[in-house]
Design a protein that fits this description.
There is one protein chain. The protein contains twelve helices and no strands. The protein is an all-alpha fold. The protein has a domain of 173 residues: MetI-like fold (Orthogonal Bundle), CATH 1.10.3720.10. α4 runs antiparallel to α9 and α4 packs across α11. The mean pLDDT is 83.
Length: 286
Amino acid sequence: MSTIEIAARTSDDRRNPAPAHRPNKRWTRFILPAYTILMILYLASPIFVMILYGFNDIPGDRQTPKFFGFTLDWWKNVFNIPGLPEAFRTSLKIAPVSAAISTALGTLFGLALGRYRFRGLRPVDFVIFLAIAVPEIVLGASLLSMFVLVEFPPLGFATILLSHIGFSIAFVAVTVRARVQGLDRNLEDAAQDLFATPITAFFKVTLPLIAPAILAGFLLAFVLSLDDFVITNFVAGQTPTFPLWVYGAQRIGIPPQVNVMGTLLFSAGILAAVVNVLAQRRRGRG
């Protein structure tokens, strides 16, 4: 074979290399999807059971492990359990108010932490993450001690509200701060170059960009307030919330209406998540 033929063949081999040998995955390609599906089912199984037992046609008025069949009686009589409607309404009154206040304060806190560098930033970061990481039983005991030492009015709605605001601010601040740190400051500078005041640039540029984080922080604070038990148990006094009522009812048996209310709350959370996704998609297209 001549030198010219060898060179030509080498050039052809470089242009059309042989396909690389790919290992035969066979059944191994199903490992990750199967694991993902199993984890989703594992995490969602308590919710599915709760929804199912909200339709359980039990002979009495207390929940049992056995499933007797489907009925809508518990949905029709969801508010016929003494004490349950009042506790549920108390939780629904506290959760949105505490979420709104903690979102407003946490958003300002997150903006300051994500945008500015000042002396004492690291200690502030430590305090924020300490508020998130500290066990709830410690936080609840400390809040109770504080209310007793300052001779706060009787424990009840006000102390629950203040406590929920206190532990929710850190979660909102961390969420907003992560969003602020990822923003492009050149957008605000460009708005000010176009003769926008700093306030106008904030409301026209910065606020729309961090709106998803603010909404996420609000939903997180709402859920944390709605299902909190440990801290509320310390500071509630004689004011029961929905989690406290469920805890007290489980001593003699939980009524099926609890499953119905849990299903309603879960459905409301799913609806809020869907609305959030649709709003973000619409904002992105706009």
